[in-house]
């Protein structure tokens, strides 16, 4: 992407419930827990996380790389595996 | 400090480092009265800031430094048990990267801003206004554009308000433009630059607190700024046609402009373009601004816009023997009989102008760290997330409203921005809102609100400048001075920027998620 494109990014109305495809890898913050399972809430879409590779450690407010395993476009929920940690929040 | 420290010094240092490390790993500071009491340092600071800047209209940043120091001392008495952890947490907060990156960028931005100002950038803009020879109807609109250009170059809205209130405002009154509209246009230009300039203190804070690079932040906020600016421009043209001036001075503005105009000053548009292009092309902000400073320095010297000694000068006292023999150097001068020895020039004043703000950000971040360690930060965050930010649209509206509210109360806008930034980061992250978007919400509302309300820092700076005009111009009467209360509906760009963000938050315009685009790492600032 040329840097001039940086000026034209985001000229659109973005859905509050983004959708993802199976197998898609994305970066996201881990945002909380739902019934004991860690989740990444992206807008109003919720991905339930398999954190086995991270030893089920609490990853709240950690930025991680995820692979989407399943996604239901009707209720905007899905399942994803945490692949690696990318960083922390600045605060 | 000794050059060769003995063992005991080293041991002491080790112990100190260990204690600091422990403070980092320790979970909590306990306060009498519970976790809410850990907000006390920032609460005292905010109350002081409202009293000082909001009620008494004193825009002294060093006053806020005293506020934070007093707040940190008073709050210590509410800490349970050993105060050492509290003390170490202050260090921990001050040594955070977020403060350091902002400080470094401010120092560079300050040098750049003062160097293009000493090189007559304002005179170039005055020449442009004169060359366009616009009448009263269009003058407020073009004043908005030119003030916006200056503010985008120098990054300081306050500096822009001072320069334009001193020159463009009286020129507009002479031309027969409405004074209230003129003052509103000047303030609008300041909002535009404060918001968009890569060298603006608020832009820098918004980027570093949201883990984003400054170049990317500037490019991504262009869309909001330009929508608001086009509408504001149209607003000034329309209002210029409808609102006449109650004053008829019967004298041309030409003479005022001729004295202060120099077309060569416009070459600094090139210096500004170098900074913006280099930053947006992904280079580190220090590199980008350094190139801008070098270009501005060379242009100043080559075109005779400013002497080397205007940018850096060692003024030695007459008694100094060495000074006389090196006085041939362009950056050495011997002081007159009454003057004292000093270092000066735009590189010096540009950096030193930021010193109070630098100390202030270190102390505010320390206060925030105490709130984090004491559990108060989490308590406020949970309150916001449970009560208000229950969906992504509501989260963004909470971010817009929260930033606006804090800026309406603390009118030194950079200080307000630093105080609210951690919440914008956390609420946004909990919905995976992209760092660029968070930085844009934070900065737009910070820049806008600081120039709208009658008690806003930028408005008061301009008002103070307007009050000096009757002394400078015989024809300028007290009645021509615009009261801050009159101007607030006419700061079109400020209002429009705020509304653009309200609409964006409600509709998802411009919304991006962390997954959509990765902002460059903080390492590149």
Biggest sheet of chain A: strands, sense, closure?
Answer: 6 strands, mixed
Which CATH architecture of chain A would you pick? Beta Barrel
Fraction in beta strands of chain A: over 45%
Q: What is the topology, as strand order, of the major beta sheet of chain B? A: 2-1-3
Gap from first CA to last CA of chain A:
30 Å
How many domains of chain A? The number is: 1
Order of helices and strands of chain A: HEEEEEE
Structural class of chain B: mainly alpha
Percent range for helical residues of chain A?
under 10%
Largest interface: A-B, 30 and 44 residues
Instruction: Give average pLDDT of chain A, whole number.
Output: 90
Average residue pLDDT of chain B: 88
CATH topology (fold) name of chain A: OB fold (Dihydrolipoamide Acetyltransferase, E2P)
The portion of residues assigned to helices of chain B is: 55-70%
Task: Jot down its keywords.
heterodimer, A: 91 residues, mainly beta, OB fold (Dihydrolipoamide Acetyltransferase, E2P), six-stranded mixed sheet, 6 strands, globular, B: 525 residues, mainly alpha, three-stranded mixed sheet, 3 strands, disordered N terminus
Topology, element by element:
The complex is a heterodimer of chains A (91) and B (525).
Chain A: H1 5-8, E1 25-29, E2 32-34, E3 37-42, E4 45-50, E5 62-72, E6 77-88
Parallel strand pairs in A: 4-6
Antiparallel strand pairs in A: 1-5, 2-3, 3-4, 5-6
Chain B: H1 7-25, H2 40-55, H3 61-76, H4 84-94, H5 97-118, H6 121-132, H7 139-154, H8 157-175, H9 179-196, H10 201-209, H11 214-242, H12 254-260, H13 268-280, H14 285-302, H15 308-311, E1 313-316, H16 321-326, E2 332-334, E3 342-344, H17 346-352, H18 355-374, H19 376-387, H20 392-409, H21 413-429, H22 435-449, H23 457-466, H24 469-472, H25 484-487, H26 492-507
Parallel strand pairs in B: 1-2
Antiparallel strand pairs in B: 1-3
Helix pairs in contact in B: 1-4, 2-3, 3-18, 4-18, 5-10, 5-14, 5-17, 5-18, 6-7, 6-12, 7-8, 7-9, 7-11, 7-13, 8-9, 8-23, 9-11, 9-22, 10-21, 10-22, 11-13, 11-22, 11-26, 13-14, 18-21, 20-21, 20-22, 20-26, 21-22, 22-26
